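Here is this case:
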Amino acid sequence: MERKKLRVSLGKRLRSCASFDCPGVLPNWEDYPERVQEVLREAGEVFYPSLLYDDLFRSLGKKIFPRNYYHFLGNKIRQTDLFQLLEISHPRTRIYSGRHRAARILADFSFPFVGKTPVGSSQGAGVYLIEDAQGLDLYLEGHRPAYIQEFLPIDRDLRVVLVGGRVIHAYWRVHPPGEFRNNVSLGGRISFEEIPADALEFAQDVAARCGFDDVGLDVCHAQGRYYVLEANMVFGFEGFRAAGLDFYELLARLDDEGFL
C-alpha cells in the first residue's frame, strides 16, 4: 500500500522519496495552495524549509530537518567558531578585522599558510596558498575580514557525505600535480582505495556533535590525527557518479527504510 504523503519538504532534495510532498520554495506564503499551507501549519517537522522559511518555522517551535544547515551553509567563519567551541580537531584558524592585519597575522602564522574567502566561496574558489608578504598583501586587498588558516602538508582529503548521521558515501579527492587544492572541480582525482574506518567514525562524530543532518565533510589526516576542514551543505555529485551511485536514489532508499 502506498504511504500517505503526510510529510512536507519545501526544497526538492527529497523529491524521489515516496513519503514526502515537495511543493518547492515559493517567494510568497500566499502562493502556496491552501492544502499545502494547512499541512505546513499542522506539521510538527518541516524538511528543507529553505533559508527563506527556516527561521519562520523555527519561531513557531517546529522541528527542522536538516538541523544546522542554512546558517552554516557557505559560512566558514560560523563553521570554524562551531568547531572551536566544540573542541573538534580543525586546522588552526584565526579571523582578522581592523587595522594592522598583516602584522598581526605574521605574528601568529609563518609562511606558508592559507587564506580563504570566508563566506560564499565553493569548489576551491576563494582558497589561496600564501607563501610570502606580497601574496599576503594581495589577499588582504580583497578580503575583509581575513580568514587565515594553517597549511597542512597533505596530498588528499576525504569527502564523507552523511545524511541523518549515516555515512552514505565517501571518497578521496587527490590533488593534481602543481595544485595544493583537492577539489574535483579543479582537477582533483577521485579514489575509493583504502578508506579508513576510523576516518568515517571521526566524520560521524563531527556531524553528530555539530548537528549536521545533511553534509559533505572534508576530512584529512595530518600530524598524526584527523582534521575536519570544512562542512559542505551543497556538494557536487561527481564522487557518486564515479561509484555508479545516484544520490537521490540513496535518499529514496533511506526513506523506504524509515530512516528519514
Remarks:
- The chain has a mean pLDDT of 93.
